[in-house]
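FAQ
Q: What does a multi-component entry look like?
A: The components come first, one per line:
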Amino acid sequence: MQKPDCFQQIILLLQNFWSDKGCVVLQPYDLEVGAGTFHPATTLRSLGPDHWSAAYVQPCRRPSDGRFGDSPNRLQHYYQFQVVMKPSPIILKEMYLESLKVLGIDNKVHDIRFVEDDWESPTLGAWGLGWEVWCDGMEISQFTYFQQVGGHDCKPITGEITYGLERLAMFILECDSVMNLPYNSPNSQRPLKYSDIFLKAEKQYSEWNFNVANTEIVFRHFDDAEKMCQEILGLGDLKKKSSSKKNILVQPAYDQCIKASHLFNVLDARGVISTAQRQVYIGRVRALAKLCADAYIDEVSSRV
Amino acid sequence: MELISEEIPAKMQAPAMRQLEVLTLKKVNENSLIFGEMVPFVTPMRLGIILENISIKVKESIKEIRGPRLGSPANAIDGFLKKNKIERSELQEKKTSKGSFYFYTLKINSQPLSNILSRIFTEIIQEFNWPKSMYWGDNYSLRWVRPLRSITAVLFENEKRERVPLNVRGIKSDIVTRAHHVMHPEFFDFKSINDYQEKIVNGKVILQPQERKKIIVQEGKRLAEAKGFFLVEDDKLLEEIVGLTEYPIPLLGKIPGELLSIPEEVIITSMREHQKFISLRSSTNGKVEGFLLITDLETHDQQKTILSGNMRVLNSRLKDAIFFYQNDLDLVNHHGMMAWNDKLKSVRFHEKLGSQYNRVERIVKISVMLARQFELEKDEVCKAATLIKADLVSNIVAEFPSLQGIMGAHYAKAEGFEKIVSDAIRDHYLPVGSYDVVPKHPLSIVLSLSDKIDYLTSLWKIGIRPTGNKDPFALRRAALGIIRIILENKLDLDLDYLIDLTEGNFDKHSLQRFIKERIVYYLTEKNYQKKVVNAVVEHYKLDFLPIMPGMIAQINAFISSNSGARVLAAYKRVSNFLSSNKEILDFEKKISEERAAEEDKLVQKQLILTKEQVEGSLKRKDFKTALLELNSIVDTINHFLDNVQVNCEDNALRILRYSLLYQIRETMDRVVVFSELDKK
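Then the predicted structure of the entire assembly, as tokens:
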């Protein structure tokens, strides 16, 4: 098997691989999220009885991880490749190892290790059991069997695989700094590096996240998003208007939950949330996620 | 039986193996099975047990069923025959105390062994209790630690091989199994236990964790010595690696020179936490310059790819660490560590106790008050105490919390503080584990005691208590740390005074009780006799702590000496009188001295004298003298008891005499509660 020679080829190979395994290949969700798990294709679809398999790239934003493009492996904006299969197939682990082979990582040559890492998302009220996957000492993926999401037991269980695309690419392409990754093929007409595409934005967002963002407005946005989410689900002033049982607007509400989560991350990076307050804000986001999960389950069970 | 699953967390493996052994033993006994040897085993992928020479204790049991009386009507007899599906010829006649009856002897063959094992194994799997377990797929009939993939259960009898039938969560047991999941993934069957063990080793799986540990240590040492290194011991890490490998192969790597510019604690911690490397020290200069990587795979390139991949990861990890360290140093060089203290205001210690900054303020106060007792300059103590928690908000400690104190010391040195200050910042966390040494330098001692007493009292004040084996705030460790610092440094420090240095009113009595329990724990761990320890700790206040070990030794010496034996005998004599008296005596009543006999007066005089002496000695904490002073009253006691009748007719006199005996015992108990020493 020919090894991929650039970042975008790794994505294409993964998409094809999981498409062949029966996943629908989706596109990124169009809101700022901290992890691929926030995509409704994972969070919401892991609830309820319906079978579901999907794969997609998700850009992720972690404001406090920004390093102005100076760190060889930390970014405030990066990509995850997310696979969810529900119910989790018995050979999901073997499928995953096969996907690594497609990327040129042969487990007869590389030491692939599954190291305990129980995943928990306090903001999503979700947890699962699984591992970090190490390849020759580099963490390249997270592998999780969801047990609960939004406070609800998952039945059936969703298996989730998250590839850290930059890490994986740095490993496969033997690159010591993320900014030096070839984004497209070095043999193409206009070869571009990761830095050619993202360095400027990385600097700008680091500056914005750490030093500029108007926290007064962000705080307000957070409150607004929270309020909207609650209203859509019929808890606030909009109660009367949207009380029609037939059409519960779960996903519009969930959008507001995602927004609140991201706004919290920005405030956190700006250092304006004390440790004590932190727990309060996480609790507020979790309450929204729980509301959305409740509504989703309501909606699914009222279908019959 | 062997259960193959997806990777079991390393720390759960050894306890799982023990649980399997205990459960199996219980089931085997309940089912009256006997066996020769029981060998449990565990690897990341498998949990299993071998039972050698297993058999059924009683293969056949006999039950007698009573039928009708002799001479009963024929239809009654026929009915009995029909009910039991037997012939007339199978009946026997037997006499009992109630008369003669027909009897039928029923032979019950026990179930085949494989059936019993099938039931036992099923129950074991269903009753197995993982600390964390999960469902997978869409079947909710079994929780397991990670998805259970296959079950192998085989019974060997002579040359015969039999499948032990199991069906758990739709997984049917099989007679085949597999060895290493990458190196030998093909399934194989086996003719005997020996055959299994041989094939599994050839298939690159070492079943016993102890065996894997031995390989890592022996082979690791061999590699290290050949390259001029020796291993940095870390048993916890070693245990974890044992739980991450089925076939451990140590590889040696050298850390590139340009990555060695950070404190070695950072290198060791980063390698341990991020990559599970065992650090190696150079035999020539003692510095950490190499590592052992334990892989789980033999490759056609002799693991070269694995080593080089890991080297690249190490490179980026250590560069990250260097970046953090440089950031921290820059801040220290420009603004000093004090700049971090401000940040501590936003780090919460406990929701009811404010920030880490508040805590530092309290620690500073306590340590300044302690300074004089340790002949330290107040300013110096204040300066050091102010900085002890500063590193908590440094980049490196945010990345590696276990380096708290250690990095603070490095940064203090960089800022130009004296060595005793940086040492104290590092050592004030000591002792953490029971193998840790206690801080030795007075400044370190003052900071450590101030930190711990503030921690203990402030959490105590808001009602946090350890319960049973739960102690989430590690209060026991804090108390034990204080006790060890005082005793192991032979400090003349009053723990009650230390408690009083902390702010606010709270239930000091319960805290003193708690600390006393820890003292008893510590001293009995030191192999002192529990009853002697109790006699001392229970009856002396905390200000005696510094001399408690000495007191225990003196008591032991005293009671085995002649004079000690005499004191003990006199004590028992007095005690016997007091316990045999059932009368309630009013000691308050004034007794006219005139009616007292010469002996009464004598004993009273001696009692007053001894009491004074003893109190005086105890006030000076001269316990040894206090013990010896008890000798002086022994002759008087014996003379008294030999010559007067305690239980006399005269009411007032009787009260006087009992009162005297009571006071004698009280005086003796003031030194040691001798009755405690008699306890079993």
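Q: Is there any commentary attached?
A: Sometimes. For this entry: Chain B has a mean pLDDT of 91.
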